[in-house]
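Schema walk-through. Below, the input block comes first and the output block second. Nothing else is stored per chain. Lengths vary across the set, and this one has 476 residues.
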Amino acid sequence: MGKRIIQSPVPFVLRKIYIEKCSGELRLKSESFEKTLFFIKGDLCFAKTNVLNERLGEILFKIGKINQAQFLEIQKLLSNQKNKIGSIMVENSFLSQKDLHFGLIYQLRAIALSTFSLNSGEWEFISVIPDIPEDSKFRIELPTIFSEGVKEFKNLVLFKNNFSYRFLVTKTIADELHGFLKPAEIEFYEELGRYSPQPAGAIAAEMNVTDDLYWQNLMFFFLLDILEFTDMSGEKGTDSHFDDLIAFYEKLKSKEIDYYELFNLKNTANFNEIKEVYYQFAKKFHPDRFGDAPDPELKEKANFVFARINKAFEILNSEEKRREYDIRGYKEIQNMEKASENLVEKANLFYRKAKSLYAQKKFLEAASFLEEAVRHDASKPAYYLLLGMIQSNVPALRRVAEKNLQKVVEMEPWNVEPLVALGLLFLGEKFDKRAESFFRKVLAIDPDNEVALSKMIELNPNNKKQSVFSVFKKKK
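--- output ---
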């Protein structure tokens, strides 16, 4: 039919329709549903569905416009008439024309909002002028759908995974969009602007909000087209850019450079000046600009320079960190960082030793080394993942293994490895239902995951085998 929803989620299709003011039909289909949304110049104007609880009678009953007795009576009347259900209800005084109008709008919004939670099936967009009767045509602006839809989006992990490491850049909010934004959202957006441009994931760590709220807001603003994500790479490097990189790299390696000196700023520079200079440096020395350089070492030098630029900005762009930096000075801060780096290096040594022991199936020894690695550096999801996988092989440690694997899920919700490991852990413990729930989560993120697919077949009787493949595997 078209593109798979798990790979190209519906909200991003709606964004394109909204930005480009498209007219046409968005058709969505799977084994369990068929829906069509109709658009005129970017506005939602009509919808069709075969999902039972999205039909008009069920919607009106749900929102209290008709009671149960009326609902049952309507079903009898429908079997004997060819008129539309709305006309039948008005003609039989079950509800007023005004209530019917409200119910139709509610239904249209409900169908549109339901598309945000879809993670299976396919979609295609047909660019035509929809032929819709005037009495059934509405004009609902998509921003009103976006504001509620982001809360229903089931694949926020995909959005986060795609944009965490890209630079977030805010735009000016057009006057006509202010009506779609709540005061709290405008305040949040203004705060984002104070961090922009920075990698979206780094900003998340700075703002005092939950992870889900942060990414829901970013998705909402992205759908409205008032922020964008960029890799900051710009055009490819030229010979002069290569020379600039080499010169800057040699400067950083030759002596200890104060963070203000790095950016050619005075220590009295304000935060806006720091951001502006950082943006210029980050764009100029972004490693992606040097991927095609004739000397492969240039990319490594760019990585080194870019890391130093980001570290300087992290310090100078934080009021608290900058104050400490100004008091302690560059050398003392560097000494503290070197001490921290030593702990990180020790943790890495313990991790590598544990991997070697794990390969030899020396699980208790490997677990001991991993525990030391975590003690020295508790920030690495890979450490907790391997620790959980090792502990899963020791019956007495399986409860602790679950906690460590769950920690990885919290740190990297897009990563299927801890979900697979949890599924296998519960499968080994004969908790089939819990195991199946984790394998389903894996397939929602990675529909082609072979381990999850094979285990789902094992967990389901033969008569369910086809449904497992039809929902999660690509159609041939």
